[in-house]
Amino acid sequence: MNGDDLADYALFVAVVEQGSFTAAGVEVGVPKSSVSRRIALLEARLGVRLLQRSSRHVSTTSIGQQFYERCQAMVAMGREAHEVVRQAVAVPQGPLRVSCPLTLAQVWLTPLLPRFAQEFPRVRLMLSSTSRRVDPVEEPVDVALRVRRPPFEDSALVVRTLGRSTDVLVAAPRLVETHGMPSEVDALRHWPTLALSAQAGRAKWVLNDGTRTVTLVHEARLVSDDMLALRHAAVEGLGLALLPELICVDALARGTLRRVLPQWHSGSGEIQAAFASRRGMLPAVRAFIDFLAAHPPLQLSPAGPGAP
Question: Is the pTM higher than 0.70?
Fold first, then answer.
């Protein structure tokens, strides 16, 4: 069975329901002669007579009636499938599969989801929070949220930038009081530190102030790939941390963290929405990305709250 067969099955249903080749031709917009010829070819391919013909009317044979009932069900299912697509492209609705790094989901995306659900009640959102890199081309994901630093690799994905995030140095006020606010990066070598990663017990921060770049190698008191755990440890005064500003902005606003050497940072990354293609994009996907673009992550000023 091929596409031509399916089209002829639908045409056969029209002939039976309209009762003549002429009326069926009017119904589907095909000349009567073409309708008659295609049904005759269909009968030849199947090797059976489906219709009894008279000068004014056609009726089904016994096998033709059975064939019609099954073709009718198939045509009805096709119409239902077409209606599903028509409704899906009319308004944002249906399932929407999103992946997002766990920390980004916790500090930015998750608080936005109730508002998105209220604005688009017919969208069913399925969120996967994972630190694993997700490819919407290879996996059943409509939108992959991610943080990337330049240079960006070539990719078949379409990317929309939603915001930026810079890693900044932060510490609890009492830790700053104990060690004194430093004026140079070298002074940090005597501070207790917290780090995302370390090799052979040594962590490394690459910092710049726009004109200079300094590499600070240190032994961290706590190493963890959980940025929220590092933020909590920093608030408790356990050590100095280099963390994304997005994670620290609330603590800085409350005064439980302070910026240290605010002119120094560890570069900026883009918060991106990656998806397979703009062509044929479902309204639910477009609505979600536009919604996130209208509610970007909070960002600090160059000095940031909490700076001296």
Answer: no
Distance CA 106, CA 95 (A): 21
| Number of other residues whose CB lies within 10 A of the CB of residue 64 | 21
Provide the residue ranges of all domains of the chain, joining segments of one domain with +: 3-88
Tokens 């045409």 correspond to: 11
| Closest residue by Cα to residue 246 from 235, 256, 231 | 231
CATH of domain 3-88: 1.10.10.10
Place of tokens 């688009």: 120
List, for residues 244-277, the tens digit of each pLDDT value: 998 999 999 999 999 999 999 887 888 999 998 7
How many CB atoms are closer than 10 A to CB 285?
Answer: 22
In this structure, what token pair is assigned to residue 270? 């883009």
Q: CA torsion sign, 224 to 299 to 265 to 134?
A: positive
**Host H or E run for residue 66:** helix 62-88
For 233, the token pair is: 């440890």
Residue with tokens 């500003």: 245
Hey, what are 209's tokens? 């102030």
Ramachandran area for residue 161 (φ above 0: left; ψ -120 to 50: alpha; else beta): beta
Neighbours of 104 (CB within 10 A): 22
Element (DSSP H or E) covering residue 241: strand 240-244
> Is residue 167 a contact partner of residue 234, using CB atoms and an 8 Å limit?
no
pLDDT digits (tens, 9 = 90+) for 169-206: 999 999 999 999 999 999 998 999 999 888 877 899 99
The dihedral built from the CA positions of residue 29, 33, 39 and 42, taken in this order, carries a sign that is: negative
Q: What is the DSSP string of 117-163?
A: HHH-TTEEEEEEE-SS---TTTSS-SEEEEEE-SSPPP-SSEEEEEE
